[in-house]
Amino acid sequence: FLSVTIDDKRYSFPQGSKILDACLSVGIKIPTLCYLKDVSTNASCGICLVEVKGAKHLVRSCITSLIPDMEIKTNTERIRKNRRINLELLMANHPLSCLTCDRNLNCELQNLAHDLGIQESRFPATRKKRLPLDETSPAIVRDPNKCILCNRCIEVCASVQGVSAIDITHRGTESRVSTFMDKGLGNIACTNCGQCLLVCPTGSITQKTQTQEVWSMLSDPNLVTLVQTAPAVRVALGEELGMEEGSLVTGKMVSALRHLGFSKVFDTQFAADLTIMEEGYELLKRMKEQGVLPMITSCSPGWIKYIEHFYPELLAHLSTCKSPQQMFGSIAKTYYAKKAGIDPKIIRVVSIMPCTAKKFEAKREEVDGAYRYWKEENKEYAEPFFPDVDIALTTRELGAMCREGGIDFSSLPVEMFDSPLGESTGAATLFGSTGGVMEAALRTLSEVVSKKPLVDVNFTEIRGMEGLREAKVALGETEIQVAVAHTLKNARVLLEQIKQGTSPYTFIEIMTCPGGCIGGGGQSIPSDAAAREKRSKSLYREDVRLEIRKSHENPEIQQLYKEFLLEPLGPLSHRLLHTGYVV
Ligand code: HC1
């Protein structure tokens, strides 16, 4: 530890601390637009200036380490003036279109301009031309005109995801964030994870908004519009609508969706339980028949795009199961359509997801299970083409629809999902947090193999926020090793082991985003480690509260197999619930 003085008060901090971290830890707020705790200190914005006794110039607190007996001032006229100048310089090229910006009222640049009392930017714009939007991605839109070159997106893409899809291009006043050869996010190795837009301090990176398309569906009397909601949405939608971080709002969310006009409100968690059945039996089959191991989970679409781009030679390790989002779409437009007597062509499936990559997943060419099914069963039902899932909205987009629809969220009653695709288990709830898919699978696998009830359903050794976790688990007489990774940078470690032939694992779960889906690119902003932790805890509490905690005990899943699919991995499951991958 070392002692320093900040604003005339003595403190002690661990050796090596930066001024900014030290100040924040004792409640002294220093503004910054580029710093990202535990990810990046690229010192590009010049806002976090402080005075250090003996130093000729103001210093950037995010990159300056404490030294013993340092005397620091964080709030003087000189500091305030220089922070204002630097902010005005950043604003000089920034369009003042706040009212129509996706991040209006939730923009760090806007908030800081307000906090620093900026009335106008005194500096002329240096950028002469308006730059074109990058709308090439099905999930993410970039507006380089709103970029303040803080580098956060670049840092997250490189150091959290290990992808480096974007970087600074051009020089001087022409500098901008762009993709390889300006090809656009849709034409490069971007995984659509949306971590860049979560950390963007302005509205320069946003999701591709599709709320108007959904409003049109809802007002069309000739359509039956179903909605499914992902596990991680129920612990983040409340934040988006003014409630505490991590509030569990399942019942209010169901009620809000009915108010908005959806014909039926169903649960992606039903399909998560279905995934466990299919994936669990797939693993057992591979183990029995010396198939390709380790098998890796396949529900996180950013991860699928990552392995397709960077490790195509390992694709045989992926489970062939579609994600729960896509399984839901296939089942809704076949089993449910039949049961409810609805022509599948008039059914629309909207997903509410914590994830931007789900927009991409819904548009993949191979997600046409229901269409192909009807083509073979009853051609009249099959034309024109329809996808399994029509539109995937993010948690933020649902929040926007609730606001636009005049819904007073906190006073809504608690309502239940519709049946028969609305029942789910504690295991399915855990899908939303890193390690959850693995835990859900192990609960079912243990019982299926041993044919005995599990004494303890909690696989605590694979829980937590460590980037890589592993455990040894008994499946009957056999012991297997399993691993869990979240973020693509951590995924790479496990993939390299497989490539070298040194992987000791039988089964691996990989989730694209920090913390799993609770930290997805579609979640409420801010989505930092503290918010993720609260969302995750909320899901684990819900698992304990639920009466049924194992996927194979979900009565609606049992009914689905009895009435329609007949058995896991059966011919119909293969047609509707499994897929292949693009090299
Ligand atoms: Fe996920 Fe999944 S857990 S991928 O993160 O398998 O997005 O929440 O819906 O599909 O169930 C996301 C979450 C989600 C799927 C499920």
Describe the structure.
The protein is α/β, with parallel strands linked by helices. The protein is 36% helix and 13% strand. It contains 20 helices and 17 strands. It has helices at 19-25, 77-92, 108-115, 152-160, 195-199, 211-218, 237-240, 250-260, 268-288, 301-310, 324-340, 357-362, 369-377, 395-404, 426-430, 436-450, 488-500, 529-545, 555-565, 571-577; strands at 2-6, 9-13, 49-52, 59-60, 71-73, 140-142, 166-169, 176-179, 205-207, 224-229, 264-267, 295-296, 347-353, 391-394, 468-475, 478-486, 507-511. Strands 2-1-5-3-4 form a five-stranded mixed β-sheet, with helices on both faces. A four-stranded parallel β-sheet has the order 11-10-13-14, with helices on both faces. Strands 12-17-16-15 form a four-stranded mixed β-sheet. Strand 3 (49-52) and strand 4 form a beta hairpin. Helix 9 packs across helix 11 (324-340). The radius of gyration is 25 Å and the shape is globular. The relative contact order is 0.12. The mean pLDDT is 96. Bound molecules: 2 iron/2 sulfur/5 carbonyl/2 water inorganic cluster. 2 iron/2 sulfur/5 carbonyl/2 water inorganic cluster (HC1) is lined by residues 230-232, 268-269, 272, 299-300, 323-325, 353-355, 358, 431-432, 516-517, 520.
